[in-house]
Amino acid sequence: MKMLMFDTEHFWFDTFDKGLENVDDIQKEEEIENTAVAFIHVEKEDEEKERKVAKSAVANLKWYLNKVNKEKIVLHSFAHLSSSKSSPEFAADIISAVGEKLENKGITVHTTPFGYFSEFSIHVRGESLAKVFKEI
Hints:
Elements: E1 2-18, E2 29-41, H1 50-67, E3 72-77, H2 88-104, E4 108-111, E5 116-124, E6 131-135
Parallel strand pairs: 2-3, 3-4
Antiparallel strand pairs: 1-2, 1-5, 1-6
Helix pairs in contact: 1-2
Pfam families: tRNA-Thr_ED
Protein name: Threonyl-tRNA synthetase editing domain-containing protein
GO molecular function: ATP binding; threonine-tRNA ligase activity; zinc ion binding
């Protein structure tokens, strides 16, 4: 798994086009203020170590939220950080599991619709920690 995390003043998205045929039809537009955003890429090799990857993702996201002093996060599936890709079903399941674990820890989680290309606008802060890449 690879994660690109941002400390943002705002993140806005609008579903643009369905990228996977087997996902529900969704039209969603949302703007979230003062949030962290994580672009998450789930890799093929993650399928062999699902529990470890999910646990590490949650730990890294909690660490990041603490560093940037945020209590909410947007999880966005972003299959462009590696040439290795898991199955779409596995990626959707693990991102959902990570979101649930974060919510169980009192974090507000927003998730962009999986399987969609979205138009988005992001205002990332300028500090060094405002942009962090993690490989799990």
